[in-house]
Amino acid sequence: MAAEHADSGFNIFPMDQFVIRPLFGNHGMTWYTPTNQALWMGIAIVAVVLLLVIGTRGRALVPSRTQSIAEVFYGFTYKMIEDINGKAGLKYFPVIMTLFTFVVFANILGLLPYSFTVTSQAAVTVFLALAVFLSVTIIGLVKNGPGFLKVFWISSAPLPLRPILAIIEVISYFVRPVSHSIRLMGNMMAGHAVIMVFAGFAGALGIFAVFPVVAIMAVYGLEVIVAFIQAYVFAILTVIYMNDALHPGGH
Amino acid sequence: MASEQLMAGAGQIGEHAEGMPQLDFANYPNQWFWLVVTLLVLYVVISRIALPRIASVLAERQGAIARDIEQAETLKRQAVEAEEAYKKALADARAEAGRIVAEAKADIQKELDIATEAAEAEIAAKSNESELRIAEIRKGALDSIEAVARDTAGEIVKAIMPVAADQKAIDAAVTAKLKG
To answer: Among A56, A76, A54, A57, which Cα is nearest to A68's?
Structure first.
């Protein structure tokens, strides 16, 4: 297969960047083998610690640059939860903050050359989305009991429409983890793959490589924006789903 | 089946990926393990260290700002009070000055009135005296005129008609003439 690619003159392997490999050695993986993915998750932890812990160690009244950024992260997430969930949602602030910072840093670090994009892996995003889905469902049922089913019964709609809407609501409720996870993974995967395709063109075009290089720069800029937006979308959707658990029927 | 997938996953190492490597379910347990580890570490760091610290910094800043604003308001209030006190003092001083001026004016007026009165009395006394003297002089002049007229008339009569020189008749005629 590899020979086939080489014959065509292009060395385009856009999906190679998503392969998970053991960090050490070249043999099979067990469930605890340190991989390139584990490395970049670790780097994400280091980045978060650098920003939120080391960056704020001055506890300055007039913040330094890194402390300002940490405070922006804090204030942004705090306000998002407060706006959507009210005070009741602030109990889950550390969880949402963990999710948000993890996704942001995984997205951004994935844009470094030769890095590995943790959030481009279905395993990761599906795990996160399922965790959110199950948490919301369990918290909703524990907090509200059968009242949680009001999520599917839209009391603001006309009565004859409500059973139909209930079916739609149930379907959309259970599709949530799918869309929640595929959205993030797809966005992270697509742009990176496109960049690699252009990079493959660049290798084969000689002097005309300037065109794919310019295109890569443009796509890269777009990807930086996407990295932030998708992290934000993931976090805000989590908060919105959480709202169902906290205030069912509050559509 | 699981072992077959594991083999397939292992077989890809070193080769170029075909299709979507993300769907290589063999390494999902590995990914989930490291993901859970990562999330737990992040959660502990964020909930135990980062968030309380940032929250305390923000609260402290909020407090400092509130304190500063309060202090500024106190100072502003004090400035307003000082201005009012100054204005009041100014108004008092003005009133006092007005009072002193009025008093001085009244004193001067009184003294002036007394002096004017005295001067008027003196003038009146002097003018009375003068009138008396004028009347005296006038009377004296009238008497002299009568005497001269009598003497003159007697002399004239004596010179013209010495026979008829009866001084008493002449005097009566002169008096009657003067009165007429």
So the answer is: A56
pLDDT digits (tens, 9 = 90+) for B67-80: 999 999 999 999 99
- Residue A234: both structure tokens together: 């993931």
pLDDT at A4 (0 to 100): 44
Contact check, Cβ <8 Å, B42/A102: yes
Q: Of the candidates B7, B15, B38, which has its C-beta nearest A2's C-beta?
A: B15
Task: Report ipTM for this prediction.
Answer: 0.90
Residues 176-205, chain A: which have Cβ within 8 Å of B? 185, 189
CB-CB under 8 Å, A18 with B53: no
Between CA B146 and CA B173 the distance in angstroms is 11
CB hemisphere CA count around B33 (13 angstroms): 14
Domain range holding B140? 2-179
Give the span between the Cα atoms of A169 and A68, in whole angstroms.
Answer: 41
A217: three-class secondary structure by DSSP: helix
Number of domains observed in the structure of chain B: 1
